[in-house]
Design goal:
- A two-stranded antiparallel sheet has the order 1-2.
- The protein is mainly alpha-helical.
- Helix 1 packs parallel to helix 4 and helix 2 crosses helix 3.
- The chain has one domain.
- 77% of the residues lie in helices and 3% in strands.
- The radius of gyration is 25 Å and the shape is globular.
């Protein structure tokens, strides 16, 4: 990946983490009102479909899904930014993001009025991160396989095809090198 593109991706990661932390800085009332309005909209939609759920349970589930989804997005961004690298440095960096961002996020909430940090929320955050990272890696692998399958053999297949079609078989060319 080009350095300029990588730099912009890291800036995007930083902005995304700032978004996550900004959600944690919101006081309990503001956070509750936001998730409450989302819960009410989903609750009324579910009622229209004939589903009866406890609104408090639904609100709790929506708050936990928000954690999971937020961190799934971070996992996708880290996967895109670090690419397919299997170096120990890349894996260490991925692990640092997996552990440190949720811990800092939940620690911030300990100091915000009406909020509290939670070990379980850290685990939900980490599960979301891993899910986003692994799903994006799987999708990238499937697209790469599809691309390979659309050009079976790649350049080597083209060379072999040229050799077969060649009338003069006294000279063999493989990747620009001629053999007699």
């Amino acid at each position: 990946m080009r350095k300029g593109k990588t730099r912009w991706l890291w800036i995007l990661v930083a902005v995304y983490i700032a978004f996550i932390f900004s959600n944690s800085i919101a006081n309990g009332q503001t956070s509750g009102e936001l998730s409450g309005s989302i819960s009410e909209a989903i609750y009324s939609l579910l009622q229209k479909w004939g589903l009866k759920l406890n609104p408090d349970v639904l609100h709790h589930v929506i708050r936990k899904l928000a954690h999971f989804t937020e961190y799934a997005g971070l996992g996708v961004l880290i996967r895109i930014t670090t690419g397919r690298s299997v170096s120990s440095g890349a894996w260490l960096l991925r692990l640092v993001f997996l552990i440190s961002v949720p811990l800092v996020d939940e620690t911030i909430q300990l100091f915000v009025p009406g909020r509290g940090g939670s070990f379980w929320d850290c685990l939900i955050d980490m599960a979301g991160y891993l899910t986003g990272f692994l799903l994006s890696a799987l999708i990238a692998r499937l697209f790469a396989k599809r691309k390979r399958d659309s050009n079976p053999g790649g350049r080597d297949a083209l060379v072999l095809k040229n050799i077969r079609e060649r009338k003069d078989t006294s000279t063999l060319e493989i990747r620009g090198t001629y053999y007699k």
